[in-house]
Amino acid sequence: MGFLKFSALAVLLLSAYCWADNKVTDVRNDVEEDLRDLSVSELLEKANSNQVRSDDEPALIEGDIAIYNDARQRGKRNADPCTSHGCKWVKSTDGKVYIPYTIQNHLNSDEKSIITRGLESFSSFSCIRFRPRGSERDWLSIESRHGCYSFVGRGGGKQIVSLARRGCLHHGTVLHVLLHALGFHHEQTRSDRDRHIKVLLENVQSGMEHNFRKISTLNQGTPYDYNSVMQSHKYAFSKNNQPTMLPIPNSNVSFGNAQKMSRNDIERLNKLYQC
Q1: Closest to 174 in 3D by CA, of 164, 183, 184
Q2: I need a surface site. Which of 22, 58, 80, 173 has the fewest CB within 10 A?
Q3: Largest interatomic CA distance in the chain
Q4: Is the distance from CB of 66 to CB of 160 less than 8 angstroms?
Q5: H or E segment and range at residue 67
Q6: Distance in angstroms (rounded) separating the CA atoms of residues 20 and 64
Q7: What is the pLDDT of residues 24-52, one digit of tens each?
Q8: What is the SS3 assignment for 30?
Q9: C-alpha dist (Å) from residue 148 to 30, 93, 164
């Protein structure tokens, strides 16, 4: 009799657990449905807004680019030019660029599979090969921290890439953050930006103006790309719901809507790493 009571209780508890788990899944699916049509830039902004980061996390510029807390390092690792003198991942003798990584165990199997899909996709269009870390000195530690962010290029040692489980685990977002780790900055900070984008600083949030500074980027001979997965949307850092960027000369050109890497994104990656 006691066994039957225990069995009935176990069934009830299991049913309650499954019901609760299904409810969480339903809510998560509803959220994913709401986000499905957003661009990568919009997803990043949503994921990184109102985040309170812990003391051991880096400062961010441009919303999702980590910078070194050591003042001597600032400006050395936050732009494409660093790839010409030390922050590019090294090519192997077989022509492939192997980048070691770990995915922290606080991410579950479904979350890891989204990240792994992003990592593995690079092998289909480049010589980049992300592979689980062995004993390599430099590697990417992929973790769920506060928001989505990465340092630009290879920084040395353990290098954190944050892909928070809440908001960052979308295929295009994973690719965007990994492109930062490979050495790429945002499109609107390109050295030739002013021929293609007009920045409207009067609409930018106070204290965020630095996010629109141009950088002496290595553009790999590729054209400015409004459809790049690295191009932010027209209202980025807006304080008044007015555009902070407009394309020129035609202000009606659509931009910042990418949900995946463009042909130019792929071309400049392959040119940088001589794939």
Answers
A1: 164
A2: 22
A3: 82
A4: yes
A5: strand 65-67
A6: 34
A7: 334 344 444 456 689 999 999 999 888 88
A8: helix
A9: 21, 33, 6
104 residue type, one letter: Q
Measured between alpha carbons, how far is 223 from 189 in angstroms, rounded to an integer? 14
What's this model's pTM, rounded to 2 decimal places?
0.83
Single-letter amino acid code for the residue at 159 = Q
SS3 269: helix
SS3 content of the chain, % helix, strand, coil (to 5): 35, 15, 50
Phi then psi for 5, rounded to 5 degrees? Answer: -65, -45
Cα gap 16→56, rounded to integer Å: 39
Comparing 83-87, 207-211, 250-254, which segment has the lowest mean pLDDT? 83-87
> Nearest Cα to 117, choosing from 169, 47, 46, 161?
169
Contact 81, 216 (CB under 8 A): yes
Alpha-carbon gap, residue 218 to 31, rounded angstroms: 38
